[in-house]
Amino acid sequence: MDANRDEPDARTGRIDEKFKPVFEACDSASRKALFQYFLPTHSRKPRLAPTRPRLIKWYCPFASQKVFPSGHRYCLNVYAGCGHRCLYCYAAAYSPERPAPKRDFERLLRKDLEDLERFNVPPAPVHLSNSTDPFQPLEARHGHARLALEKILETRHRFSTVTVLTKNPLGAATRGCLELFKALTILPAGHPRHAEFSASGIPPFCVEVSLAFWRQEPASVYDPCAPTPEERREGIRRLRAAGIPVVLRIDPLFPRSPLPGGLALNHFGLAEAQTLHDLEQLVRFAKDMAVRHVVYSTVKIVQPRGRPLDPVMGRLRLVFEKLAAPGRPPFHSGSWRLPTPLAGQVVVQPFLALCADYGVQAKHCMRNLIEAP
Ligand code: SF4
C-alpha cells in the first residue's frame, strides 16, 4: 500500500495555494476528510487542486479563492447545460448548447454520498445549481433536482445550508416540491450544526429566484425560454406563503438611458431592459415578499461555447466598447464588461439607492456566499 494514502497531512504541502487556507483552517480529522473527498489522492502532480470527477463538487472551483472564498462548500449541477437559454448566461461559455441529463446520475450521486459518509466529511453548504437551472424543462421528465434534494434530505447530517437557484419557482411549487422544501428547512435535532443554526436564525434552506426584469418585453429578449416574470412572481408568492425562505436575484443589472456622452440604448438598436421604474417595482416586490435579501451584479457578455454571440448581445457589446476608456478594452477575465467606475455610477448606485429607500438588503453576487453560521 502507498504509505502516503493514509497520511494526507503529509501532502498538504502540495495543495494549490489558492485552496490551502481552507485546509489549514480545519482540525486534522476534517482536513483528512476533505483531502480524501476532494483531492486527487493518487495524483503525482506537484500541485493538487480540488477535482471531483463525480457530481458533488467544490463550490466555484474556477473562481479565485481570494476574491470568492468558496471554502468547503459544494455545488451540484443536476443537468449539463440549460434549456432557459438566457443571453447573458456565463455558463454558456463552457456548457453544452443542448441541455441534457447527466448519465448515470443516480448511481454517481449515491457514490458521492457514500463517500461523504465513508470519509466522515463534516457538514457543508450545498448549492443547486451554479451552471444550470435545476427546474428547467428537463426536470419534468428526469426529476434529477427532486431526486438530489430527496437524497440530501436523507443524508441531512452531511449538509448545512441547502440552496436552490432557479428561474422556475412556480414549476417547483406546482410539481409537489413544497413539502420537500419545508422538510429541508428544518434541521433534525441530532444534526451536528443544529445548535448553531438555531442560535443564528439563518435558515438552513432557501430558494434563490432570478428575476432581473419586471416587464415581459425585455424578458422575452434576454430570457427567451425561461418562465415569464409573472410566473416567477407567482412562484415566489407560493413559496413565501408556504414559509420557504427566498432570496431574490435582481441579476444581472443592465445599463439604461441616458448613457454618458449623450448616448442612449436606442442608438445601438436596443430597447430599455431595466428602467428605474422597473427596478423600483422589483425592489418593492422584494420588500412585499419579505425576501431575505436581494443579489445583484452588472451584466457581462460571454462568448457562448461553439456558437456565435447573439446579435442582441453583439449590440450590447458595442455599447460597452463605446463607453470604454481609451486603451482599456472592455474584455477582461473572460467576458466583456462595462468599465467598473461607470458600472458603479450608472448601473449599480441607483439600484442600491432604491434598495436603501425600501430597506431591502442588497448583496453583490460575489459576496453572496451561501449563508451558514
Ligand atoms: S437559467 Fe441560469 S443557467 Fe440557465 S441559461 Fe439562464 S442564466 Fe444560464
Descriptive account of the structure:
With 373 residues, this protein is of the alpha/beta class. It folds into 2 domains: 1-50, no CATH class; 52-253 and 276-293, TIM Barrel (Alpha-Beta Barrel). It contains 13 helices and 12 strands. The strands form 3 sheets. An 8-stranded mixed sheet has the order 1-2-5-6-7-8-9-12. A two-stranded antiparallel sheet has the order 3-4. It is globular. It starts with 19 loop residues before the first helix and ends in a 9-residue tail after the last strand. The model is unreliable at 1-6 (pLDDT under 50). Bound molecules: iron/sulfur cluster.
Mean pLDDT: 91
Radius of gyration computed on alpha carbons: 21 Å
Low-confidence stretches: 1-6
Structural class: alpha/beta
The CATH class of the largest domain turns out to be Alpha Beta
Feature tags:
TIM Barrel; 373 residues; single chain; disordered N terminus; binds iron/sulfur cluster; alpha/beta; 35% helix
Brief overview:
Helix content is 35%, strand content 12%. With 373 residues, the protein is α/β, with parallel strands linked by helices. It folds into two domains: 1-50, no CATH class; 52-253 and 276-293, TIM Barrel (Alpha-Beta Barrel), CATH 3.20.20.
Chart the SSEs and their pairings.
Elements: H1 20-24, H2 28-38, E1 56-58, E2 74-76, E3 79-80, E4 100-101, H3 105-118, E5 124-128, H4 138-142, H5 144-154, E6 159-166, H6 169-174, H7 178-185, H8 194-200, E7 205-210, H9 216-222, H10 229-241, E8 246-249, H11 276-288, E9 294-296, H12 311-323, E10 331-332, E11 335-336, H13 340-358, E12 362-364
Parallel strand pairs: 2-5, 5-6, 6-7, 7-8, 8-9, 9-12
Antiparallel strand pairs: 1-2, 3-4, 10-11
Helix pairs in contact: 3-5, 5-7, 11-13
The protein binds iron/sulfur cluster.
Residues 82, 84-86, 89, 91, 132-133, 167, 226 line the site of iron/sulfur cluster (SF4).
